């Protein structure tokens, strides 16, 4: 049994991003790039499933320019068995990513596709749901716990929803997207980083997969959010209560 | 154009988040636009909600009701098929839903079935096809233009589209019609709803509260977190938490405020022992007044706070509890 995991290369979560002066996007030159944290959790979950005997192979997939291979290597160093890189020079919208993933699923025939619930760059939170829709597979989004029944081919998923935890049962094959509390991802160790260099990475282009990248959206501009006016540091609780009462009028 | 609002209901009324989606629909600048509201589920509360919807706002011209057990629970698979079916019949120019856990789960799946790109987490509408949404945890705002075929699918942030004021529009009640489900063939059984563990319902809803009191890792334990709860009670507010406080098990997940948790914009946001990671700021930076109490004077939270107090929260909160006026 096989698990496919989709991973994305993004600006590292700790970087304070800067908007480009010409408003076309954010500065990504000479900025630390990393695997999207939610994707790390997705990969970790797949690796644990393999280690517990549920799956025999974990395939990591990424899309984007040639540098995306670095992120794929990180995934291989964490423990993925092999990688697939779909090369595309510019960024892809989730609809295109979902179409490519559908094609890769048809080629690889995994029993489970696991993705992060969102990427911390565009914050879209769409790709897993869209891929599940295109495949007509059931989806368990925002997962905080996954229990697999190999015999019955069922995944029971706890989902973090607005008013608590919702539990759904999915017949495999299925799509799962991961929330923060699903697991604590491992670090790649130096020996594993070395080993990852010889793990196979298959390359495709969208054309080879017969996916037409159509764009039905364009970015008009990227701007900085309005700045909050500078606040004041107070010296006592009495002063705070006074300000809230008489200046802010909120209590 | 015509707009479909995909709405949720509870206890016979439309949920506030869905009313915000309706408010967003009325922001679409199209003079002869009409708004239809889709409700689904089964039982008497569905029909109560339909009559509530029909008279809750004059901009609603039609209420569509899909009455079936298949929609009793918010499963994405039947819901996406339903919206797809309703779109094929109605040919709407826009489909809008709230950007809550329901809308985030269902609407991208709908968009995939319709082969269009959805635009999620919209915070402003510039024109009928141009929208603003935050990216990078709200550290940048992205204006996007939708150039594809109909429908344009949006999920909207409730904090950016206030619930419309109650309008007594008994005189212009919208029509209520049933969605013809005879062609609805969802292959059931691929996914099954098991349960929902709801948390404490006594608290005001975090997303809609006027005051939010938030605690961070510095609270140190679930027991100490009661200080935050007591203060929020005193201010008739809701309790929030940072990711660190949730991860540490002080409070349940649905109290998390931030990029991946709840987005709040109350009149008063009070943060205790919150360092102010960008992921947390993403969830509360639009609050009207922000108060931060932290013993680290260099904590980034002070950069967004209107009022900062450098001090020990274990001293400050009891003093606040003692000195704050009782809420009527």
Automatic annotation (TrEMBL), chain A:
It comes from the Eukaryota. The electron transfer flavoprotein serves as a specific electron acceptor for several dehydrogenases, including five acyl-CoA dehydrogenases, glutaryl-CoA and sarcosine dehydrogenase. It transfers the electrons to the main mitochondrial respiratory chain via ETF-ubiquinone oxidoreductase (ETF dehydrogenase). Keywords: Electron transport, Mitochondrion, Transport. The keyword Lyase does not apply. This is Electron transfer flavoprotein subunit beta. Heterodimer of an alpha and a beta subunit. GO terms for molecular function: electron transfer activity. Its main location: mitochondrion. GO terms for biological process: amino acid catabolic process; fatty acid beta-oxidation using acyl-CoA dehydrogenase. InterPro entries: ET-Flavoprotein_bsu_CS, ETF_a/b_N, ETF_b, ETF_beta_N, Rossmann-like_a/b/a_fold. Signal peptide: none annotated. It is found in: Mitochondrion matrix. PROSITE patterns: ETF_BETA. Residues 23-213 form the Electron transfer flavoprotein alpha/beta-subunit N-terminal domain. PANTHER family: ELECTRON TRANSFER FLAVOPROTEIN BETA-SUBUNIT, ELECTRON TRANSFER FLAVOPROTEIN SUBUNIT BETA. GO terms for cellular component: mitochondrial matrix. Belongs to the ETF beta-subunit/FixA family.
